[in-house]
Amino acid sequence: MQKVSFAEAIEKIRQQDPRYAEDAYYFLREALDFSMKLYKKPQHGSAKDRHVSGQELLEGIRQFALEQFGPLTATVLEYWGVRRGEDFGEIVFNMVETGILGQTDKDSRADFAGGYEFHEAFAKPFLPSKKAAAKKRPHPLRQEPAQ
Length: 147
Prior knowledge:
By secondary structure, this protein is an all-alpha fold. The protein has one domain.
């Protein structure tokens, strides 16, 4: 049996499930590596030692995405068809079913449900804080109307 490359596997997945852009799969692979480092999972060793839970992966994805895309994170993910944590679960399990990723008996798509609300996770970190808004000063060139 000939080993299939990552690109070929993703192409096969997308033929069966075109909901998510190809880039979403590449991003998820990188976010998984980031998450393994974040949670200090060894690159080598048994699969059980390297395993990242769905909730750990969601948090790793959140941090990695913010690092990569900053305030455009939500826009990029939406462009790829990813609008909620459950979409990341679908991508992961598409990769599991193709043999790209492994899973334990405890893993399920439900692990990705209710992880975080996208606005809270990806937009709110870049919105001005209430303190900053309260300190907002009048524009120096704009004169206030005389009373």
